[in-house]
Amino acid sequence: MNQRIAPIAGAAHEHAQEQTPGATVRLTAAQALVRYLAAQRVACEDGSGRTEPLFGGVFAIFGHGNVAGLGEALYQYRHELPTLRAHNEQAMAHSAIAYAKAHFRRRMMAVTTSIGPGATNLVTAAALAHVNRLPVLLLPGDIFVSREPDPVLQQIEDLQDGGLSANDALKPVSRYFDRIVHPAQLLNALPRALRVLTDAALCGPVTLALPQDVQTMAWDYPASFFTPRLVTFHAPAPVQTEIDAAVTQLLRAKRPLIVAGGGVLYSRAAPQLQAFAASHGIPVVETQAGKGSLAWDDPLNAGAVGVTGSPAANSLASEADCVLAVGTRLQDFTTGSNSLFANARMVSINANGFDTLKLNSVAVQADAKLALAALDEALVNWRAEGGWSANALHRANDWRTTVERLTHAPQERHCLPYDADVIGAVQRSSSHSDTEDIVVCAAGTLPAELHKLWRAGQPGAYHVEYGYSCMGYEIAGGLGAKLARPEREVIVMVGDGSYLMMNSEIATSVMLGAKLIIVVLDNRGYGCINRLQQACGSAPFNNLFDDCAQGPLGAPRIDFASHARSLGAQAEHVANVAELEAALQRARAAARTYLISIDTDPARTTEDGGWWWEVAVPEVSPRAAVREARERYDDKLAERGGRAPKAIERDDANDDSTSNA
């Protein structure tokens, strides 16, 4: 008969107990889950040999689906696994994701919600984590397995499948999903979940749906299941045949180019990338996720690439004869809708095999650091053509000079500043800091301007979520970054549209003492989409406040500073860039979250750089501007080698309904 160890409060005492072979401990499923998470350890990043928890904590908004079971377990183990209260489920998941991103996927957080709206609020955040290959553990409550109280409050009833719940909406956006219908299932589900969260090839969101009655069921767990473990992070080593194929392609190249993606940062390969590029004379361009892989002033760093790219990076990309894509999933903003690298052979290094296959690449499924080391060893005496390297150095230096000019331009009187002016002011305020700031952003015009203009001096200084381009991520993401890097100043740059979508975690940041500096650029609407709308020939409509349906009182004039103060932050509104610079110094000296709002021009953007991005334009329209935009679109498709979709041919194609469309 197995020896049974009664559970006691405090996991530290439990772990310290002498455990005999075959010993068990009786715990509820919720207690077992929390205790298992608290037992996972990782090596400290400082190289000291010390360890720290893999999970930095659990964000929780309690409801009837998780308060009694998981809530009680979190209370019991609150010293080993801190619980943090948030104000919005999607936002707290964003914060957890940002925490993992700021730790380069080496630490992470869990999130728990109730069974209904709380659970479905996680879907957007799960999709964001899935697209960006970032780890987060989602623990939504679920309906009763017994189904005795059926339907329970907030339950979604499916008329064809009695086993479905709201949590099934999370299946398409989870890298691993399980519904725990018996406490014993945790013995398999938790190690599987942990593997996905810590494997570079699998990494993404994990959902463990927790029926509320199962959370409270007790079972005799093996005591060894809760022994503290040092987590090993998994990443594939390169296969020699794939390295050989990549070497063959590179040896043929005279004008090679490196595209640095987020995988460079997650594999801690920035030093290897810098050494590889310098040794072989290869210019480097950066994706949104990879920005910071090289310091902004590295001679070979030609800047941002793609639709939001610099002229230096994009000219090199269009002229390169071989592109080495490292740790990037090659989304359309990077590739210019597959038009930018048209003249190059592609070699793709990625831990995720799915991503190595894009653009007909020579595939190297491997950790970026290991693959770069293997390539470097095989290419000892090979360098890019001298003229190509010299040209790249010249273009990169010219772009740095242009960035200096754009971000230091004097503001004209009676003209609103635009994003570059604000970015310049924020960047200048950073020069007074002892440690490099972390800038956080996500959607709208700002990511494009930041990608081109922000000067990231080290990995992690640039934290922009653009894989999912999710409005509302900014403030919540800033909170997660601050929790991960409390010693750094975290500056959230956000447009008024994103701010209005999700701002509740200002209150959480104040409550947790996680100070943020938030700069709100108020252009009175969705300026980015308003410009895209007009570029496609459409009239300005339903984006800027002035172009929206309005009641008799008109559009509101929103006082963002007053709103932030109502959430507990310090705040002020400034009239110009000079006032902004002074306010930023006050914000740095403040002890709590500090918001600064400034009015900006919704129409103006940086003209330098950029590349075509495919946005389909209507084939038939009564507006001449739309028809002209369609002609330009067709021309671009022809340049890329594609063609516009043809309308279905019909015998009555010339009837009145068609001609008047």
Automatic annotation (TrEMBL):
GO terms for biological process: inositol catabolic process; isoleucine biosynthetic process; L-valine biosynthetic process. Belongs to the TPP enzyme family. Coiled coil: none annotated. Keywords: Hydrolase, Thiamine pyrophosphate. This is 3D-(3,5/4)-trihydroxycyclohexane-1,2-dione acylhydrolase (Decyclizing). One of its GO terms (cellular component) is acetolactate synthase complex. The lineage of its organism: Bacteria, Pseudomonadati, Pseudomonadota, Betaproteobacteria, Burkholderiales. Pfam families: TPP_enzyme_C (PF02775), TPP_enzyme_M (PF00205), TPP_enzyme_N (PF02776). Residues 625-651 have a biased composition (Basic and acidic residues).
